Amino acid sequence: MPREVLTIQVGQCGNQIGCRFWDLVLREHAFVSKTAVYDAALSSFFRNVDTRHANLPSLPVGDQIRTLKARCLLVDMEEGVVNSLLTGPLAELFDARQRITDVSGAGNNWAHGYHVYGPTYRESIEEKVRKAAEQCDSLQCFLLLHSLGGGTGSGLGTYILEALEDYMPEVFRFVSCVCPSRDDDVVTSPYNTILAMRPLIEAAHCVLPTSNDALAGICNQISARDAGEDAAQATLIDLPQDERQGGRRPPRPARTSRTASAPPRKRDTESVVEAAMLREAPVPRSAGERRPRSAGAERPFDRMNSLVAHLLNNLTSSMRFEGSLNLDLNEITMNLVPFPRMHFLLASMSPLYFGKDPRLVSRGFHQMFSDVVTQGHQLMNVDPRGSTYMALAFLVRGSASIADVNRNIGQLRKKLKLLPFNEDAFKIGLCKVAPRGLPYSVLHLGNTCAAHQMFSHTVKDFSRLYSRKAHVHHYTNFMEREEFDQAFETVNSLIKDYIHLDMLHETPTSCYPEAAAHNSASMLLAPSSFASATGQGPAGRFVPRPLI
Ligand SMILES: Nc1nc2c(ncn2[C@@H]2O[C@H](COP(=O)(O)OP(=O)(O)O)[C@@H](O)[C@H]2O)c(=O)[nH]1
Ligand SMILES: [Mg+2]
């Protein structure tokens, strides 16, 4: 019996990703389930309600589907995105009473989101969470969707995470967050990210970070591949010109000289992220097949969000469909997170595609296993080669057998460095239903010590601004300046923990519950050794240096 997940989407990015996710999940379910019955699988993410009554009573599993309502809260301190969800093609899916919006926004300021909007809306958020929880048989976990670079998702999102820890400590808190790209247009994004990291480290059970750099890189890779295919398919497409392009400007000509796997060349004037956001979506490949538009016209970030939606869809598929080895979000957390603060998982997927109807991406089952341990398929720019893995999961969709999966894992494990006391740390999920249009897919989640690379460049960007106290006054309007130092120290000590575990295979003392309270990890290394610990020191080598 699947248990329910309550999704809380916060800020522009969180709501836009949520919108893509719900659209994908609904389409997939409609494709797989040919009956109009509200089944247990649907109940994990949706309520079935009777709209003839104003209070929308829930109908039990086994009834005919009347109206599905997503189990989610829509939170944003600007109204635009939430309004567009509530009036757009998916409007019926959302319960407008489960929205929390304001008008003026958090101005890309974590402190405004956390310290102003947090306390202002706490009661209302708790009330809506309570209501949503009461509508569940057995609430399994909260799933928070947000970005770290802005103000609302970052500040209010992490405030909500901590409030959930106080309010319902027994319910797991799973987070999917988007990290800013290095050339993000929000100048304060390094501050917002580091300030948001502290609650993410302390109050989340498991975090799946994705970065806009990595998402953009993948989008550009897919575009290059599809452009090649389009050129080959052009003569097969028999739709009027403007119908084919959804009435938009024509796609750029295919670069025929490029190979399918080669990344597109970056133009001087265009960042990788801009390129990924601005390029047209691919033209449908066959006659009669139109670009799906149910979630509205394509907007910036849509294709990047589509990748995150695929990630979330694959992550939760075994909660929604049958399979011989089901793996829910709590089991992932339980199996992949041996130490509480080291809960940032590196995700990679194969095959990679946009949209709801995949082009037939010709990846063999074995190729997919090789793909997911390569950087081109990772949703975060981190190089895990040579780093120690604490645990790994492979969530396979399609009719693969456990023997097939084990054979592939057997090959992979020879190349991976594992913790000596945890060498069997492989978790497998097998979901019978493959993504629509594909025979198989593989989602890999790795808890690797290389995770500290996720934060290293943000730490550098943070230090560059903070050393000159640039923009700090915007924050001290709402918080004490010490909060910067505390957040920095928390992130810094986590980085050291990862490096320590990687090098010594010893559990850092901050990972023992009693020591965590004293944050003694920072005592493992002299403060000045941080630069060398991150590989940036003159020696370029990590040398643990006890203080006493
Ligand atoms: N991948 C992705 N990134 C987004 C999206 N919207 C905004 N961002 C990024 O998120 C950060 C700004 O956060 P945003 O969600 O707009 O701010 P908020 O509304 O205050 O939470 C910047 O790094 C943006 O590049 C989105 O829909 N998808
Ligand atoms: Mg906003």
User: Would you count the extended β strands for me?
Assistant: 13
Structure annotation, total helices: 18
Any idea of the CATH class of the largest domain? Answer: Alpha Beta
Distance between the termini: 53 Å
Q: How many domain units?
A: 4
* Strand proportion: 5-15%
As residue ranges, the low-confidence spans are 234-270, 278-296, 515-548
Keywords, separated by commas or semicolons:
548 residues; 60s Ribosomal Protein L30, Chain: A; 4 domains; binds guanosine-5'-diphosphate; 5-stranded mixed beta sheet; 18 helices; Rossmann fold; single chain; binds magnesium ion; 6-stranded parallel beta sheet; 13 strands; alpha/beta; disordered C terminus
Structure, explained:
This protein has 548 residues and is of the alpha/beta class. It contains 18 helices and 13 strands. The chain has a 6-stranded parallel β-sheet with strand order 5-4-1-6-7-8, with helices on both faces. Strands 9, 10, 11, 12 and 13 form a 5-stranded mixed β-sheet that branches. The longest helix has 25 residues. The protein is globular. The site of magnesium ion has 6 residues, from α1. Guanosine-5'-diphosphate (GDP) binds next to α1, α5, α7 and α10.
